[in-house]
Inverse folding.
């Protein structure tokens, strides 16, 4: 960036909007240190009490653990299935390819409330009791299309000839997949996994319909939003989660940007 | 190929079909569950309160999508044409808040817009109002503000991608032919970025139309949307067949819109990759 651009209207606008985007996060972090049970101005004074009380908030911690386990498991499955779909679309021509592509992208554009109630009907029709498993299924359905597109765009940057050369030189199909295709996909798979995890960890609109007796973190948060006295604890936890997720996403973005460079070199 | 296709068939296509069959049932539980009827469709057609809510939700979705695009476009433009080497860093800076908890950011907006909130305290201090007002929160505009806030980064991404795809030589040609900057923008850059704008519009419009969480938290009674109506049929009213009819109406709207947009929008723009 040139020096004169620092004061350009575009840059000032960018700075203002970025402040607007970060302001609510800052507000929450500030309130997590505020010595008052109610989230209102003016601020009362500095305290670490809420962070201290977190350790004893068993339900809250159980919800965090549930969300982490659910996020890890559903993201592994979504990334695996998304990668399989991406390889299928990018490297194979099969009957109904376009139809598959269209249907597989649908979960991205369907309103979540509809997906949630449709799965609720499905599980009740089957007589499957609602639990973290039913929520997990929904998270996989939500994340597969994104994982597929992230991996497919990575594959699009590499020449098919790489795989064909390996096969010509006597490697089997599965050997080629393991030694050529998957290593190419690896960075995109990691970024698909991270994006699936953050989505799952935060997902509420669908989970709400499918949750059983054990809460995920967003489900727990939603129930707590109705009891203002418990809010400071929630806000303290929120601040921790925000900071951790910002760190995670920064890592993911950094990875994605470096793979972007690579794939551009690959296609050049 | 088979496992992802199977997943989508069983957990995405099948539920939609079962939901469609549910819409023809009389009630949620046995024995009404086994009675075939089109009653709920007629009921839906005759209830003007449903139509009003649907129209209002479409309105909210339009305003939210429009405002997000207007606010996000200059960001994308700046990043592509002015940010230079800082581009990727600044882009990341823009996206990061979008990945933090959505519920918590809504909670933050409740704190900001509430009657003792940041905005009211500020207005009080500045002497612009006499006492804190609860009017900012629990209204359709609170829903719009919160949603626009949530969507800006998601809209900026597809527009960014579309602007990024513009061939630099086209811009050089415009400059060589003596085209002033604002005309280059209006007649070259903007038309070429329309696929990204359309993707951004779709990206906001569809989820906003189906939104129920944000209205439930910051919308209050005046900010109720169509998604809340569906949620209510399944959670409180326990009229699943009626809820299915409502969901199918929404799905039909989506499909029409997708069909309209399918020629301009790139799938990969929706995933922002």
């Amino acid at each position: 960036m040139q020096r004169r651009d620092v004061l350009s209207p575009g840059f000032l606008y960018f700075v203002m909007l970025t402040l607007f985007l970060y302001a609510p996060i800052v507000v929450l972090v500030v309130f997590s240190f505020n010595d008052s049970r109610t989230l209102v101005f003016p601020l009362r004074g500095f305290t670490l009490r809420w962070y201290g009380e977190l350790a004893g908030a068993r339900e809250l911690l159980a919800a965090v653990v549930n969300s982490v386990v659910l996020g890890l498991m559903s993201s592994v499955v979504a990334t695996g299935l998304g990668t399989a779909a991406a390889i299928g679309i990018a490297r194979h021509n099969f009957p109904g390819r376009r139809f598959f592509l269209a249907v597989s992208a649908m979960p991205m554009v369907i309103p979540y409330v509809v997906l949630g109630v449709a799965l609720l009907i499905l599980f009740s029709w089957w007589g499957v009791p609602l639990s973290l498993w039913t929520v997990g299924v929904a998270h996989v359905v939500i994340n597969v299309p994104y994982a597929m597109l992230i991996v497919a765009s990575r594959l699009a940057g590499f020449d098919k000839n790489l795989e064909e050369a390996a096969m010509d030189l006597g490697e089997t199909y599965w050997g080629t997949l393991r030694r050529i295709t998957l290593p190419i996909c690896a960075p995109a798979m990691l970024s698909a996994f991270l994006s699936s995890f953050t989505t799952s960890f935060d997902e509420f609109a669908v989970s709400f319909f499918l949750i059983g007796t054990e809460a995920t973190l967003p489900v727990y948060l939603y129930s707590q939003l109705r009891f203002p006295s418990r809010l400071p604890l929630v806000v303290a936890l929120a601040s921790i989660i925000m900071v951790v997720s910002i760190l995670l996403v920064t890592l993911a973005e950094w990875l994605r940007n470096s793979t972007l460079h690579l794939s551009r070199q690959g296609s050049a | 190929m088979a496992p992802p296709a199977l997943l989508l068939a069983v957990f995405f296509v099948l539920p939609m079909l079962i939901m469609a069959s549910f819409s023809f049932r009389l009630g949620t539980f046995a024995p009404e569950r086994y009675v075939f009827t089109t009653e709920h469709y007629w009921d839906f057609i005759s209830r003007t309160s449903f139509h009003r809510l649907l129209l209002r939700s479409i309105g909210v979705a339009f305003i939210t999508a429009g405002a997000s695009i207007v606010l996000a476009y200059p960001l994308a433009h700046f990043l592509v044409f002015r940010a230079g080497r800082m581009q990727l860093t600044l882009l990341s800076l823009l996206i990061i808040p979008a990945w933090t908890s959505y519920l918590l950011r809504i909670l933050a907006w409740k704190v900001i817009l509430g009657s003792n909130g940041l905005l009211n305290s500020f207005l009080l201090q500045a002497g612009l109002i006499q006492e804190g007002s609860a009017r900012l929160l629990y209204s359709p505009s609170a829903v719009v503000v919160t949603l626009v806030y949530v969507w800006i980064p998601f809209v900026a991404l597809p527009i960014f991608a579309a602007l990024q795809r513009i061939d630099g030589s086209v811009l050089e040609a415009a400059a060589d032919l003596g085209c002033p900057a604002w005309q280059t923008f209006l007649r070259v850059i903007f038309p070429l970025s329309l696929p990204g704008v359309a993707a951004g519009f779709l990206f906001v419009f569809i989820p906003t139309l189906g939104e129920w969480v944000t209205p439930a938290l910051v919308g209050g009674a005046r900010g109720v949307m169509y998604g809340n109506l569906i949620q209510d049929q399944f959670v409180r009213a326990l009229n699943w067949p009626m809820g299915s009819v409502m969901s199918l109406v929404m799905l039909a709207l989506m499909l029409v819109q997708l069909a309209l947009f399918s020629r301009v929008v790139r799938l990969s723009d929706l995933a922002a990759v």
Notes: Residues 263-268 of chain A have pLDDT under 50 and may be disordered.
